[in-house]
Prior knowledge:
It is a single chain. The protein is an alpha/beta fold. Among the domains are: 3-153, Rossmann fold, CATH 3.40.50; 228-339, no CATH class; 351-480, no CATH class; 494-645 and 692-715, no CATH class; 745-884 and 968-1029, Vaccinia Virus protein VP39 (Rossmann fold), CATH 3.40.50.150; 888-966, no CATH class; 1031-1180 and 1229-1317, no CATH class; 1339-1368 and 1468-1559, no CATH class. Helix content is 41%, strand content 18%. The chain has 60 helices and 51 strands. An eleven-stranded mixed β-sheet has the order 40-39-51-50-49-41-48-47-42-46-43, covered by helices on one side. The protein has a seven-stranded mixed β-sheet with strand order 21-20-19-22-28-30-29, sandwiched between helices. α13 packs antiparallel against α14 (304-317). The longest helix is centred in the first third of the chain and has 31 residues, at 3-33. The two termini are 44 Å apart.
Amino acid sequence: MIKEEIIMNLSSELFLSAYTDYLQNIIDNSLTHAGETRIITQSLMPNQVLSIFEKMTVLYPLSVCASYLRVAHGLVKYWETLKLSSNDTEAFTRLRLNSWLDEEDKLTWYRNRTTVDEGVERLFVLLVGIDHTTDKGGLADFFVCTSNKVWDSLGGNYNKWLKEIAENEGLTLGEQHYNQLNDYLMLINSLVPLTLSQKADLLEEWLAKYSSNNKYSEDYDSLLCSLFSSLTNLGLPYLHVEDDIKLFKNKKGHQYLKAAHQFISHRLYNQGGKKTKDLDKIRKYLLENSEVKVSDISGNKIDVKLYFSYIEKFILNADNDCKLKLIETDLLPILKALNIKEEKKETSSNTSIPSFNCHSFEAVCKGLNFSLERFSNEHQSRSISLVTIRIKHFQHDFNSKDAQNNNINKDELARSVLKGVLGGIEVYIGNLDLAIENCVVDFLPLDEDTTYRSSTSNPHVVFETKIIGESTEVYLFKWKLSEFQIERLHVQIAKTILQKIETDKGCLLPILVMNKQIYQAIYHASNQEEACRLTSLGLSDMKVIDIFRDYDFSQVEGIQLSLRDLSNTYISLLESVVDEGLYVARNQSKILLNAYSSVLKKIMASEAYIAQDIKERFYYGFFMTESLGHSGFNAIEGVLINAYHPAVFELVSAQIDFITFAVSDIYSGSDYIFNKNSIDDVFVQSEIETPILALKQKQGISTHAKSFGWLHYIGKPLDDNIDLSVQALLKESDDDEDTQDVQPITPEESIVYNTLNDYQKVYFHAKDGLRILATNVTNLSSLLAGVTKYCQDSLIKDPNRIHYSLHISVYTIGLSKLTAVNTLKNWQEDLVDKFAKKDKVIELKISHFNSEVAHIKRSLESILEIQDATGLGCFDMVFNFSFLQNRTYGKTDPAPIISLQSNEDRGLIFPIIYYPKPIIQQQDNLRELRLSQRQIAIQSEHANLTANLEVSNRSENEQYFVVSKMEYEQADIEFIETLHQISQWVVNIDEYFDYNLLQKGNNENHKVISFSSGHGHYGELNVTLSTAHDAQQKLKESMYNHISGIMHYLHKETLLQLIDEVLRLNESLSGVANIKAVLGNNEAVRNLYGYALSIKAISKPKDCLLSQWIPLDSCQHWFKLQDSYNRADLLQLSLKLDQNNKPILSAHIVEAKVGSPDLLKKAEDQIEASIHYLSKLFAPRDSKKSNNGYNRRYWWGQLHRALVIRSHINQAEAQQLNIALERLSEGDFAIHWTSSVVICHTEDNSNDSSIIEKFYTDEFNNLEEGSKKYFVRKYSEVSFEKTILNNVYSQGLSGPKTKLISKENDNDNDLKSIVKTPTIDIGSADGSIFDDVSVTKLTTRQAMIECTVSDTSDTSDTSDTSDTSDTVEAIEDRKIMIGTESRRDTAIYWEYNHAKLSNRHLLIFGSSGSGKTYAIQCLLSELALAGVSSFIIDYTDGFLKHQSELVYQDVCKPQEYFVIQNPLPINPFKSYSTEISPGQTIIEKPFQVAIRVKNILDSVYSDFGSQQVAIIDKVLEAGLTANPHYDLEGFVEDLEDEGTRGESVANKIRTLVKMNCFDNTASTNLYEDKVRKEHAVQIIQLTQIPKDLQRIITEFVLWDLWAYVQKHGHKSKPITIVLDEMQNLDHSADSPIDKLLREGRKFGISLVLATQTVSNFTNEQRDRLFQASTKLFFKPATTEISSFADLLSKIHPELRRSDWIEHLNSLEKGQCFFAGYIEDERGQFKEVVRKLDITALEERGFTSYINDRQSDPFFIGI
């Protein structure tokens, strides 16, 4: 039967099996429950009906049930009118012969038949032809079976059929492949609707095309390509996608297919203009582009001009003949032509329309700023009289159903939304002051000119800004207003609450109860939009419950009245939102806040026994929570807060005031320069932090919070292990999203980016690849954005960087697994695409885990097992995010009573900053953060209420701070230590983690490269960069070389001590970054000397409570508005208190210079510029220099943090200092500025130092009197040294002065003692975090090689008597057949002799009994016939001759060498020789032989300790040196003389001596050609020998074999070595297996390595093994299936790990997956993965070879 006929049957089987399976399911269910059933199907053709009926008779014979199978009378008559095919005619006849035709039209009779009538227990009636029945009314009792129902039974998609096809075609596909093909087929079905039969026919034609055309190879890409050449019968054009396969493996392919259908349907060309425009595009693309090639479906080239003529006639005239020709011709060039965007002419910048995705007020302010910026760029005049902003257009997302539900049309509905979110905004926009005289800003209300359009995507509002001055300009900007925009959501929330309250008009205080799953999903939302979407989803089921329902107010009627007033105010505010808009409602904020405060005051003033219950109820008012349950409010452990909670509404209202003030403030100082960055800063600082600081729990309080704009979660963190119902809610859409939106740069992104850049500068290998670990990640986007920016700036733009390897392992916390995985997947695709667009390749491997800190530590500790003596880790860098912040707890502490600010200072609410508290010396593991902002009224009142509920007996008149606390524990110390052990650099980014905590524990091994604070929008983040490795040594080396070069008069004997002290002093700085110094940057190294000298030279002021040195280089965000060239080096900041406990700050600015005296002038300029700038920046509230700017609170916060972050205080000082620091944060302080230059003159050999007083000119009198004076402190080299080392030299012992240290004249012992820079080779990694480790160990084997070069006449290697002839006999150029592809009978070969095969090694994986040994016998038989001899070292008894296959025995004639009987001709202590060049040979020294033997014993006996290993080394070296004929017996005797430890070693190997396994005197070896020619396979049998000794013998044999092939091996004279259970052998670097794998090819070595497990291998060993070019994967054991799947998913990444698990589980005995290289029909040599059946020995044609072997030279000796 030809191939096409096979496919025909397959396709028919797909359709018919689906149909009959569905019928069988219906019949079985009906017979089981009712005993009878009646079914009628749609009309089918005779051949289909016959097949179904025949299948039914087999399934339901008369012995099972009675049945009537009939074709409806009407269908019979219809068939008779048709001209049937021969198959259908024959089927028609057979149906009639079987009486399966209803010739008499007895439909009613069949309908009425019952089991009683038939006298049976079960009966079914099956009629075919519902479309042709004559009595439709008689069908009422029939179950109707249609193709749609059958299709639904298949899941409504093609996946089941596709999997059957793949199985029959022998294709290995994964779920993503099936899904992709199904998506295309479903798209085709939507373009051209198909019946079930036609769906099957489509697959038939497609598979016929694929199978019959030799141009398609057996892989997924070819299968996909063939689909697009199989659609012409459906009227869809042929698409030649082979050259664009990547496009068609993503959503772009769908667009092309839709476009092809749209084009060929001619629907686009009903208008003449479209015809002309498209023809012009196509003509330009085809006729002006010489590279365009066109072919038809048969592969024939088509003349481009002829092709265009078809297109022209088709487009202009809808010519049908041309249409048919175009369907058969590749249409892809046309689609590309029509998809090419016209080159845009250069237009003015004002034509671009920016789009903003934020709050409305922010969007309008940014749009206004954009317009002013454009206007100022185009016009020099400041004459602007009027700026108007109006709503030009709203593209909304309402449809007819929405309009119907709201009883208004779509545009009116859209208008109501605009009114809700923008109503009243004109008042606040009008308050903006542009600082332009007589200029008015006017926001125009909605009018009739606003246009509306409905669209299902991208809802947005277009604003028009008109600027009127000497000229008039119009600018546009967009604001994204999706259904889930935060303000639009809150309008809907207001409507919903009002509707719910309407049913409970007496509600005094509402609490909103949400669906539990939606509530939990909101917590796990990845961003604000998703949180809004989920909230919107939960509104319909949300319940409004009155907290005070049924409460008895008889004793507190005043409180009830106040609650009623609060409730009315709340309802009035919501009504105002709905009726007039959010901005109008904001005018009621004061009324709401006053009403809330009034109720709270009355409650707090009530009797204690009454107030407690009311307090607890009132506490939860306006919150959103999940079901209250039976425990009521006591069960609440977390709440959501929306903008209508008074605490939030207070901040929302203050936010608008702040933005109005800040924007006007920026314009007033802008000098008509409208700066985008300044505007952006306003909105960063106006972000609303947690409105409610803490939530009472059953025990204590929780300060854990998550914010989504106006939505906030407060309370106990929810578990990351969410159930499926919540995951389903979080599931993201598969639709492509616009990834071009510019996201604001986060502080974490900048930290990641800068650190990666610094690392690349220090470590050269980072230019080729990086391994990054990120732990405790809560914000994936920031991490990934930083890595992306690094890749773009440092790699993609680098023309010399073509290939890059990036492995990243991520542990996330607080994110749903689905969200994290989707984010990582999308990022991976995007980054790979970025590289591909620049013709670069990135090997990007990602591992993701959801885990808490404790679990992360346990996971990472397993990596430490692979650490070597150098201590170098497997990761380049660890980013450890907020690991302390994630486990804080809350407390309320008493605070002194203070009054709130006056109304005019309300703008100072923002930015909201959390302030660290000083470290208490007695509790130095405790870190505290003050969250309370007492200028925020409702937040403070709620904090006081929390404190009263936390501790019941507290006074109602006291005020309280909410404090977040964290205690650093031993587990944290161990975790940080683990990070240092597994990574080169450790970067901790945490609000609570600091330099002092890093120093705890065993910190001798990890040194701080840098510590800085003040990162983040509000300076909230600390960043430590530390290492346990060589960065500190690099820095010492750099400093040693540098200081020796510039300071010639230092004392050499204390030079290292000086360097250590300089580094110690710099480590104490809170921010110094030594990266540039590590790199050897001269200026950076000089800074280290200058900083150290300044710290020593300038003492802190007397009586100060706090004092800190701050490197200004680490505070670059302070100098955004000043030229960095004039920035000083250091700021010494100190604090003391006056008699009124007011903070008095001393700020001393220092510029340090090391070098020429000429540097003094520049230093003076720097300190003068810095003191002018900083004294204004940090001016207190009441200073004449205070600019009263919008960001003054931010700068006070920066002062607070700079002082506190590293400070230690006594417990007794804490209360006083905390009050002072709060006053500082409110601007209530005094500050005195002074300055100094500290300069060290190099080349000055005097002992002098001096201090000179100078004064600034200060011509504008900007400085206070005390600040105008500054000091110049001068030092010589010697006084520099004395100052740093605390005058260690007395006057009488000045010590020798030394010039530059010369390496020629000095032995550099000092240098060697500090320069210890081990090397590291980070290899490629696979899979999970535990596999992602590859460290090249510096073993003794590598470190201690010593060689003696001798002449080739040296005869010390006397035992090597084998043939040394260089004559090489070529083996037969024969492919080695492995097996055949399942069900296709296509042979797959091991391309053993192919010139392009990198090596001849073969790995075999599989469980016991899966067929490994049989496969090896097949391969050895094939190799024997090709003239290749093989060695088996059998330590598993798996290759005993009498247990092997007879055919294998007959072909290979294996010779067994039983070591238990015949000693091996091997000397285990032999000194091997190696020819390093023609005529020169090196011979191993005794100590090298000792190392080799020691390593063998050490690898076998893992219980040997270091002392036992040392004894082996010592005894062997001594014995071999003394006696060239040293043997095992002597070795054991010498060990016994070494005492207890030597005796323990001797006991291990004494049995080996007794067994006499080695013959040191043998004159031949096993590998000589003579021996190999006599037997195709030799088996070294180790049966009956203990397992440990088997391994030792195997290692000795491998070393001996390696020495032999180095001298006599040749790549054209191969030897195959077979090792089963190879995981038990030594796979370390430089072991014999390692050498044979890496270098074996040039000596003719072919390894066949089999194993049941890969779990025992390190990642390095696994990488080495996988250099083998060919692999066979048999069915693994259950415990290994995941590991095997991981390996296969890396070889064939188009299939996921889960796909491979499924495929591996499906393997039968003797089946395997082949992963290797083949030469296809077109001569291409490529790597493939194929599913094979191992061909049986009896089916390999060996019989003819065996019969004729006498004529084959290879077998002459057999």
